[in-house]
Amino acid sequence: MNKIAIVILNWNGRKLLEQFIPSIVQFSEGATIYVADNASTDDSVAFIQTNYPQIKIIQNKDNFGFAKGYNEALKEVEEEIYALVNSDIEVTENWLQPILDIFESDAKVAIIQPKILDFKDKTRFEYAGAGGGFIDKYGYPFCRGRIFDSIETDNGQYDDTCEIFWASGACFFIRKEVYRKLNGFDDHFFAHQEEIDLCWRAFNTNWLAMYCGNSTVYHVGGATLHVSNPNKTYLNFRNSLLMLVKNVPKNKMFTVLFVRLILDGIAGFQFLFKGKPGHFWAVLRAHFSFYFLFRSALQKRIKIEQKKYYKINSIVYGYFVKKIKLYKELIN
């Protein structure tokens, strides 16, 4: 088990650490636990040092966000497998061994996600990852157990082990060698969608991402940046577009981008009609920022095989037009 480094990124999260660190310490025997602190101004670091001296502290020089925050911190972590765990995650007994078993059984598996349930209602899946993630042709993400805002109850329907397209950054396992070969997360993303981009780059270089239903964690979600915050909308829309430029096969990229920009525009006006002008402006800002970063994103492209990366053409059509709310109905 000492192959695993559990790395918790923290920024002014004393209360979250106080609440959720105990389960990680209790149920992670043999793993090395790190708290990577993004220049907190509260007493987070002092709390860990006083109450959990066995936990290693990595102190970043600034609030680098999720992407660069982990990139900087993981330069100091040498265990074979990184478990990147949000500070609002409660883990359960024996959560690590099933993950380790998958890594040891298949050398092509680079990334694994456990089952992620809602801490506030432990009978239901949690938005960020649920039973494993996929995307449609235009880069819109969805999960087994979650399509847009429709969340499924956990009835054991995803207690399996299967290949997925992306794993949630809320609880994200990755081999150190793969993380470093792919240069980690994209710093430009700051937060949101960076884990999908990393999984997509792994997919493009023939690594596998897996879901492990025998390992369960509970996630609060929105503890750092709530869904109602327009900045969350801005980051999600902008980063999703950057991700398409970096990863879609070149012969399809401009067609996919054109359709996606139109769909984003429709979403923006929906925000406006619903009385959410801040989110409408966030979509506009996202597009302007995307145009500014387009060239740098294009330069980050690697050689991409002509591989089909999506399960369905349009999750937007399936959900809003065909009214499909369940994953099993979506793919049938």
Written overview of the protein:
- The strands form three sheets. Strands 1, 2, 3, 4, 5, 6, 7, 12, 13 and 14 form a ten-stranded mixed β-sheet that branches. The protein has a two-stranded antiparallel sheet with strand order 8-9. It has a two-stranded antiparallel ribbon with strand order 10-11.
- The radius of gyration is 19 Å and the shape is globular.
- The longest helix has 24 residues, at 250-273.
- Helices cover 40% and strands 21% of the residues.
- The mean pLDDT is 95.
- Strand 1 (4-10), helix 1 (14-27) and strand 2 (32-37) form a beta-alpha-beta unit.
- It is α/β, with parallel strands linked by helices.
- The chain folds into two domains: 4-219, Spore Coat Polysaccharide Biosynthesis Protein SpsA, Chain A, CATH 3.90.550.10; 230-301, no CATH class.
CATH class group of the largest domain: Alpha Beta
Helix content: 40-55%
Output the CATH topology of the largest domain.
Answer: Spore Coat Polysaccharide Biosynthesis Protein SpsA, Chain A
For the report, how would you describe the main beta sheet?
10 strands, mixed
Shape: globular
Rg over alpha carbons: 19 Å
Helix and strand content put the structural class at alpha/beta
Query: Can you count the helices?
Result: 11
Q: How are helices and strands ordered from N to C?
A: EHEHEHEEHEEEEEEEEHHEHHHHH
